[in-house]
Write a structure and sequence with these properties.
Strand order of the largest sheet: 1-4
Largest sheet: 2 strands, antiparallel
Structural class: alpha+beta
Number of strands: 4
Mean pLDDT: 87
Helix content: 40-55%
Low-confidence stretches: none
Number of domains: 1
Number of helices: 6
Shape: elongated
Amino acid sequence: MGLRKMLTVKIPACEYYDSEKDEFLYTKEQTLKLEHSLLSIAKWEERWEKPFLKEDEKSPEEYVDYIRCMTITQNVDPLIYRHLPKEVINQIGDYIDKKMTATWFREDQTKRPNKEIVTAEVIYYWMFSYGIPLDFQKVHLNKLMTLIRVFSEKNSPPNKMSRNEIYAQQRKLNAMRRKQHGKRG
């Protein structure tokens, strides 16, 4: 499927001291392929048993574990995740935050924000409700969420006009008709 967009990062070789084991540890340079997707979030939520998309800050341990859940490269040395360079963490954060789409939505100021807690299961529900194939669980999450929102917007009934909007539209149509037929009123 051509919609998958993953990030490739290079983790340099590292030497560090493990004070608990009183020894030096070494890691080789490793290239990781990462994917911010529904599948990654589902893995993370299974481990931590809390919603990933909640606004609260993740602890460093939770964030690194999410990077581990995003990793699709096989046979990665687990020590790699202990000392991820700041530049790599920033690069991963930028990738997670990317919109990955040109679609935008007009925000309706009259609607109240939705306070629903969104978990992987809720997103799977939305996917299945809209008939989105399971393959999309591997698409960048922001792209999947945009697709779900497009389905939601296209399937929702049109907003009802207020009485004043109806009167204004009727006045405009009457004025157009009078002008079209050369009448004054």
